[in-house]
Amino acid sequence: MDTRRAPRTVIDPKVRHVGFFAPPERSHSGPPDPISSSPPLTDVSPSGNSLSPVMIPPPRHSSDNLLMHCRQVPLPLTPASPLRRESVAAGSYNPSEFFPSAMSPTASSYASKMVGDGQFSDGMPSPGRGTRGNFGKVASSFPRGGFDLTAMKASSVPASELTTVSVLNVAPGIPEKGGGSVVDVKKDRAPSSKPLKEKTSKAERRALQEAQRAAKAAAKVEGSKAPASGAVNSVNPKPAKVVKPQQKVDNASVAASEKKGGDRPPEKERKKDVPHPRMQYDDQSRVEKAKRRSVVKQMEARNRVELFRHLPQYEHGTQLPDLEAKFFQLDPMHPAVYKVGLQYLSGDISGGNARCIAMLQAFQEAIRDYSSPPEKTLVRDLTAKISSYVSFLIECRPLSISMGNAIRFLKNRIAKLPLTLSELEAKASLQSDIDRFISEKIILATNVIIKHAVTKIRDGDVLLTYGSSSAVEMILLHAHELGIQFRVIVVDSRPKLEGQRLLRRLVGKGLNCTYTHINAVSYIMHEVSRVFLGASSVLSNGTVYSRVGTACVAMVAHAFRVQVLVCCEAYKFHERVQLDSICSNELGDPDVISKIPCREEINYLDGWANSGNLQLLNLIYDATPSDYVSMIITDYGMVPPTSVPVIVREYGREQLWI
Amino acid sequence: MPEVQVLVNEIVSKLQKRKIEGANVTARLTAELLRTVISQQKVPPTNQAAALIEVIRDIGEQLIAANPSELAVGNIVRRILFIIREVELSFVTNTVEGLKLSSEDDDIDNCQVVSAGAAISVRGHLHAPSLHALLDRTTDTATTCHPSALRDGYTGQAEKNARSSKLKRDVIEAVNELIEDINTCHEQIADHAVELIHQNEVILTLGHSRTVMEFLCAAKEKKRSFRVYVAEGAPMYQGQLLAKELVARGLQSTVITDSAVFAMISRVNMVIVGVHAVMANGGIIAPVGSNMVALAAKKHGVPYVVVVGTHKLCPLYPNNPEVLLNNMRSPSELLSFEEFSDFMDYRVGNGAPLLHVVNPLFDYVPPELVNLFITDLGGYSSSYIYNLINDYYSAEDLIMQQKY
Q1: Which terminal Cβ of chain A has fewer Cβ within 10 Å, N or C?
Q2: Is the pLDDT assigned to residue B137 strictly greater than 80?
């Protein structure tokens, strides 16, 4: 035991060095005040009395992170949100609840894998490398992983006595981790980075495998990594003592998250930010895997279009009754999520904002009814839960990019939950987070867009819009309320004919409307003075990804020298790039192509769907090249399409952490 | 001739009611009608051609006025007029040449020289001028005379030859040929298919055109395997019909919505469309949506090929064709009346309805967006079309005075 404790004490200096680099922290070297929301740097202060500021660890990326984040800590610390203050105030919380979970086999193994797996596999002799690798991994797995590290180390100070406890109770891997990490930190100041790399990759691979096994949900690399921090912290659970450090953790996180807007993260972190590749449905093995997990029984469409093999091509008609029948049997799915899934499937909810809001509200409900199983931590289990919901929703209908962003936000919020919170508080904070996302990023953003866009409408204008975009509709109605005299041309296309619903609402409000279909757009474009379009997403090369036909309308408008204004909330922006509409798209139900509503006399394709030579292709989205777009109206103002990557970079990060 | 007038009235009313539509059908019916008219027309012994032309013009005006957007009707009328002029001209030149031969002995009177010169000049006017004709014309003072002014000059002379019934017979023969051409132009156009479609090609088309179908099937028969994307062509959805026919012939076809044209065009090698009419400047009047397809093809550098029979070649230059050469169809094709009937009553203060529905039938595609015309005579670029006009039409007939 002692051997293990001794290194423990040694680890502290390292932590302090790390903290030490932030100059102003020293001034705050007073005893940490758990309740006050004052400078979070207190966590570092204990280190103030330590040794000289040690050399910066070798230039591994993780160390870079450490350094950076520590420097960043001193930045102004106005508490970002009521939420965080709340978490700080929760200091009285007794973490005993974490106790069982930390000790539970799954959680602990997970933690050990995250932190100490390297040595565990290698045995004691060379423990350091593995841990180092793991440190690096933990840090790099987050865009802002740095403060997690500091947090952990800070907590290790008081936890030193505690280690014994954990050693006694926990599976052999864990104590080794405690000791191992210490040893490694002490010994390997400057190891050759080559072998390290190797280890890292190995450990990482194992970690990944285990995470997948444990969290049995689809492609959720980020999901599985996110909970790591929580797990790490819960490894040394000591009721009385832990309280303090954990609050520091909170503060640190506040500080760190505060500054994230300003700084560009180091290269590695940025790489982590890049969205991982989407599932390609022509990859047999992965499709098989996904099928085994799936809830929805999907039938492949009969005549698939060769060009779109990489996209899921399923028949939709058969799923709905099947799923409806299973409504009460489906245990793992929360009924609210299930309902939303069915609504997606049947098309009752469509449109980027509506789908996103419905999904978030369903998650909110699911979180409210959630209680973490006795052996698991909330952070980890809830993330897995959400992931399984998401994969269910994907089976119902592929996610839109806006939904993907919202899910990313939610998972990050879960991962960042302060450990001091009780389950109830954590749930409440998540629910309020979701509410805030909906109101700030969707509803308020739309209002801002409306304000901007209305300035572009003048008396006598003829505005053209395509399909039915909620933002554009509100712009038109608002302009009408302001008393601007203008005329609206609603262009529509099969098979959805969303424009008819828009037309109905606009005419009902007394707007002067003209309705036509997309083929006639070059006929009608002569009279148009401005085109307003909605978008499902704006990609960072300026490409507007929107309902199919938008590109046609924008192209014709461009040919007729009419301005094209795209209205899109910034939460729908995405850093992905795309050049055509083939590589990433969504395929709708092919059967609706052959059925033309209200035109019974046209039934050319009746009974031909079974012919092997005939394929029906129902694309949902297309990509509009940025040269057709004059301006993108977003909640950050009116920008040219070339400025989209700037918004994605400067504000995208913030979005995840609001 | 009342029985002819009955026939004419029947077709006019069908055109007015849009009972017969489509360039092929209307062209064939017009040609057949005019053939009947010519055969039943009693021509005066003198000045037959002029009398025939008068009658045909008269009926032609009625037909054109019945549905001005069916340009093929006007084309056929003008072509039959041109045929009459040609036949008559061939008589004149024959006569003149006969006269020329007989007048080797310096015994030429002035009138004959004038008429001979006129005949040559008329021929030069109608056909691509040969070098010989050009040289002749420079020496001839009579070239400036308008052919119609000269007609009176030589008819007296030509009358001497016994040819009264021959003119009518020749004209009817030529009209028969024209009808034959209209019926067989698909096959002639389809002959070019193998030269333009290669293995594994991806072709996009819009709406339904028999010419396009024959064209694609001809390539298929030559064992080319290729893939066709058919845009359905709302609001007529003729594309679905085309897809059905293509599938029945064993072609790989994929039906897409019109809105997906831009998304798909980047993977397409060639756009092949049929048209309603080709204007003299090389622009085309085509099913609605064609302009969108053409712009997308231009953007992606995909050749835009038009397959068209010569009877669709219209000698007029388009002026505001989107409006003047278009047809508006019923709103019920877009909005079901049951659903939207309550909105038809919404009105603003001045009584104007709030809801308008625009449902045009045609699109105008400017010549710069069309890469190639495949006609039954061969392939032409859009800049050459004005030259083809001279081969089929007489400048006198271009303006058909309409009675209003």
Answers
A1: N
A2: no
Chain A CB within 8 Å of residue B346 CB: yes
Residue carrying structure tokens 């059905």: B244
List, as ranges, residues 521-540 from A with C-beta within 8 Å of B: 521-524, 526
The two three-digit tokens of residue B38, written as one number: 């010519």
- Local structure of B200: helix, strand or coil: coil
B69: its two tokens: 């957007």
Q: Do B299 and A556 touch (CB under 8 A)?
A: no
A533 bridge partner residues = A566
Interface test with A, best of B238, B246, B257 (most A CBs within 10 A): B257
Cβ neighbours around A52 below 10 Å, total? 8
Q: State the average pLDDT over residues A339-354.
A: 85
**Strand residue runs (E) in A199-336:** 299-300, 314-315
Residue B129, burial from CB neighbour count under 10 angstroms (0-12, 13-18, 19+): middle
CA distance B254 to B218: 19
**What percent of the residues of chain A are helix, what percent strand, and what percent coil, each to the nearest 5?**
60, 10, 35
DSSP for residue A514: E
Single-letter code of the amino acid located at A58: P
- Give residue for tokens 């017009």: B30
Give the gap in angstroms from C-alpha B372 to the nearest C-alpha of chain A: 21
Both tokens assigned to B326:
């278009």
Angle formed at CA A399 by CA A436 and CA B262, multiple of 5 degrees = 120
Note the pLDDT tens digit of each residue in A5-48: 444 444 444 444 443 444 444 444 444 444 444 444 434 444 43
**Residue that the structure tokens 């045009």 belong to:** B360
Q: Looking at residues A274-298, what average pLDDT do you find?
A: 69
Instruction: Please check whether residue B235 touches A, CB under 8 A.
Output: yes
- Using an 8 Å Cβ cutoff, are A272 and A143 in contact? yes
> pLDDT tens digits for A142-159?
444 334 444 444 444 444
Distance from CA of A332 to the nearest CA of B (A): 38
Residue of B114, B58, B126 lying closest to B87 (CA atoms): B126
Q: Are A507 and A574 in contact (CB under 8 A)?
A: no
Q: With CA atoms as reference, report the closest residue to B384 among B278, B289, B312.
A: B278
Residue A349, pLDDT score:
86
Instruction: Report the alpha-carbon distance of residue A548 to residue A588 in Å, rounded.
Output: 11
Hey, are the CB atoms on B288 and A507 less than 8 Å from each other?
no
Dihedral sign for Cα A350, A353, A358, A359, please: positive
Which pLDDT value is given to residue B40? 87
pLDDT of residue A612: 81
- Relative to beta strand B202-206, strand B270-274 is parallel
Residue A266, helix vs strand vs coil: coil
Per cent of chain A over pLDDT 90 is 23
Question: Quick check: B262 pLDDT over 90?
Answer: yes
